[in-house]
Design goal:
Layout: H1 7-19, H2 23-42, H3 44-59
Length: 69
């Protein structure tokens, strides 16, 4: 009997059909990703300033005052 597809071809075709993601599933993910990136770009300067303050706080040397007697 002649088959149009072998069993391997049928498996691969079925597997690829399940992997297909259309625009209705990709667009919400892309929108979420764009919103996160947009929010980060809006507050980027403040995030960097906050990180710089934290870094300076931890790198600050203790005061070199004279010891108490």
């Amino acid at each position: 009997m002649f088959f149009l597809f072998s069993t391997d071809d049928l498996f691969i075709t079925t597997f690829l059909a399940f992997l297909y993601t259309g625009p209705e599933s990709i667009l919400p993910i892309a929108s979420t990703f764009a919103a996160i990136i947009g929010f980060a770009l809006i507050v980027w300067r403040r995030l960097l300033a906050f990180a710089a303050r934290l870094l300076a706080l931890f790198q600050r040397k203790p005061n070199q005052s004279t010891p108490r007697q």
